[in-house]
Known about the structure:
Blueprint: H1 3-15, E1 29-34, E2 41-49, E3 52-61, H2 64-77, H3 82-96, H4 103-106, H5 122-141
Antiparallel strand pairs: 1-2, 2-3
Helix pairs in contact: 1-2, 2-5, 3-5
Amino acid sequence: MDNNTKRSIILEHYQNPKNKGLINDDTYIKINMNNDSCIDEVNLMVKIENGRIIDAKFDGEACAICTSSTSIMLDTLIGKTKEQALDIIKNFYNMIEEKKYNEEILEQANVYNDIYKQPNRKKCALLAWWGMEKSIKESEKN
């Protein structure tokens, strides 16, 4: 994927994020994530039924990388089983940390494949993914 395409995808998900806006529904797992090194704060709401992520929402105040990464993550993971989602999340972490990963399952999240060149932006890209992993683990407690 060339840099112009990456920029376009990131900008689109920043300016028009998918699944943005929280709702009042107690059947969703609610997770708040914030980055201690900047302003990024993301509130996630995740609905998991029968082992599948059937819906997710987010809101908060965050930079372009964090907002777009959250939007792309939700777009990628809604509809996936918890196992598929955890595999995608693991591969995303590996990509960010310059380890071996399966780019085919990351879909649009591949736009961050060179974020390691800006170490201070890694947390921005990862924040919501950490929250989603936490949500999935929280769902296993219930």
